[in-house]
Amino acid sequence: xxxxxxxxxxxxxxxxxxxxxxxxxxxxxxxxxxxxxxxxxxxxxxxxxxxxxxxxxxxxxxxxxxxxxxxxxxxxxxxxxxxxxxxxxxxxxxxxxxxxxxxxxxxxxxxxxxxxxxxxxxxxxxxxxxxxxxxxxxxxxxxxxxxxxxxxxxxxxxxxxxxxxxxxxxxxxxxxxxxxxxxxxxxxxxxxxxxxxxxxxxxxxxxxxxxxxxxxxxxxxxxxxxxxxxxxxxxxxxxxxxxxxxxxxx
Length: 250
Fold this sequence. Notes:
The chain has helices spanning 2-29, 35-66, 68-75, 79-98, 105-135, 139-164, 166-169, 180-200, 202-207, 212-222, 226-240. It is an all-alpha fold and 250 residues long.
């Protein structure tokens, strides 16, 4: 069971980086863009945000249940960073929900700035966390990983925009036709740092799993809901992958 849960935990972390990476990348691209382009960018990625964040919730649940010692080392030892990431997460999501609640360019520009800064803060925070998991403290390595993640996520976000709504990506770079495979490739690049940390920490994770009885109980609790999670993800992507399927709320 410990190997199965290791694969599940690693898959959730890698999947979160690959999917949420383009959301955060698009959010960072909002910084400094004109209003019309910002509206197109948000409308393109917003339908996927909640579905992508499900991966993070599932990841946190797996960490709390399967690796309680990792939970204590991450949540308590990195408490200021975790709090900063949570604040960035709330700021980014608040921007998505409130940017169109009132009219006015200033109101929308302020919340678009919140989306951009929240996305940047959350991305850098993940770099610090990965650096701490490798060396025991965030340090310079964490900052370096954070910068790498910013570059990878912005590339992934730009590829997503060029794939789904090329008009939203125009003006950022010379946009060439982008295929689904190119989008998947940048997703793999965005998830590469997380994959490297999971593979590098395989020995620690396998040696610090919860007791087998706990893992079996978790499996019995998770298995019935796994098809629902997968089905919801498929529905979101089938419904909103076309550029003309954009909810008016955003």
